[in-house]
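idk why but the lab printer keeps eating my pages so im just putting this in chat instead. protein + flavin mononucleotide:
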Amino acid sequence: MSKAVVAVVYHSGYGHTARQAEAVRYGAASVEGVSAKLYAVDGGDAPWAELEQADAIIFGAPTYMGGPSAQFKAFQDATSRTVFAAGGTWKNKLAAGFTNSASRSGDKLASLQQIAIFAAQHGMHWVSLGLPPGNNSSTGSEDDLNRLGFFLGAAAQSNADQSAELAPSPSDLRTAEHLGARVAQTALQFVRGRA
Ligand SMILES: Cc1cc2nc3c(=O)[nH]c(=O)nc-3n(C[C@H](O)[C@H](O)[C@H](O)COP(=O)(O)O)c2cc1C
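predcted complex ->
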C-alpha cells in the first residue's frame, strides 16, 4: 500500500505555537501509513527539497498583530521564488493551517484566512478542521474539542502570562492532533487514489 508524507511547517516566537505544531505532527503520525515531520521556520529559509517530497503541508504560525507572524510571512514570501516561480511545485498537494494567540479570538481567523489564501495561490487543496464548534452551549466546557469554534483550521489560545509548558490548553492540543490526523487520512486517500 502507498504511504503518505505530511510536513508541518511552523514558526513560534516563544514556544506556544511549537507545542501546537508538535500536537499536529503527533496526530498525523498516529495514522498508519503516514510519516509526519516538523519543520520550524524563522524567515525565508526552509528545507525546500524536503517540502517538495510531502503529499500534504500543514502551515502554522502565532497570530501577531492580527495576522501570521512576520517570520512566517517571510517564509511565505520566499515561496514566491522557490515554489511558485519554480514551476508551481506545490500544486495539488494538500494544505491545512493552525494558529495560536493570547486572546480567545485575538483575530486568529485573519491568520487562518491568510494561510488558506496562500495555499490557494500555490494550487493546493485545503483541508478544513472538520469538527463541530465546542463550548457553545450551557453544557459546554473549556475541555471541549474545538472550544474556540473555528472551522477553517485549528486554533489554540495561550494565556499571555503563561509559559509554553502551561499553554495552550490540553483541549487545544487535542484539537491540533485532530487536524493532523484528518489531513493524514485525507493524504492517504489522495495518494492511494492517484496510485
Ligand atoms: C508582536 C506580537 C503581537 C501579538 N499580537 C496578538 C494578536 O493580534 N492577538 C492575540 O490574541 N495575541 C497576540 N499576541 C500574543 C501571542 O499570539 C501569544 O503570546 C502566542 O502564544 C505566542 O505564540 P508563540 O509563543 O508561538 O510565539 C501577540 C504577541 C506578540 C509578541
